[in-house]
Amino acid sequence: MTRRALSAVEVEVRLPVWDAIADLFLDTVVDTPMLQRVADELARSPFSIDELRQIYLFEVAPVVHRNLKIVAGEWAGFGREWLRERIPAYLARGSWLFHGWSASPLGRRWHTFQTRADFQSVILQVAAIRAPG
């Protein structure tokens, strides 16, 4: 789990992944074409399946999960600039107290209960896309 400030290069490499994962937290219908777009983006990334899970759980979900818990959440997209600002700021707050809830099993469930099944579906698609042959 990342609990440190990210370099500008690390942010740029992660940004397409953050953007794709954040789409799972939009107040819209999640359909097969959308899941495929997310999977395609994640499959193009340099991150392993485990790293993608870590990014989902500890970088994206803690920042955007509230969108699905409000009455009129964002539906058009968070925007890469918004993510570029918010996720590194969240990660730079390095105290255990601040990240303790997010890293706890209960915190992870709270942040992801509405997207967990969709993310798992995406991860299975990423594995299939990356499979040799």
Features:
single chain; 133 residues; mainly alpha; 7 helices; 0% strand; globular
Helix content: 55-70%
Overall morphology = globular
Mean pLDDT equals 85
Radius of gyration: 14 Å
List the total number of helices: 7
Q: What share of residues are in beta strands?
A: under 5%
Number of strands: 0
Supply the number of structural domains.
1
Along the chain, the helix and strand elements come as HHHHHHH
Query: Which structural class should the secondary elements be placed in?
Result: mainly alpha
Note poorly predicted spans. none
For the biggest sheet, the summary is: none
Q: First CA to last CA: what distance?
A: 32 Å
Any overview of this molecule?
- It contains 7 helices and no strands.
- It has one domain.
- The termini are far apart.
- With 133 residues, it is an all-alpha fold.
Topology:
Elements: H1 8-22, H2 32-44, H3 49-64, H4 80-92, H5 96-103, H6 105-112, H7 116-130
Helix pairs in contact: 1-2, 1-3, 1-4, 2-7, 3-4, 3-7, 5-6
Summarize this structure briefly.
By secondary structure, the chain is mainly alpha-helical. It has helices spanning 8-22, 32-44, 49-64, 80-92, 96-103, 105-112, 116-130.
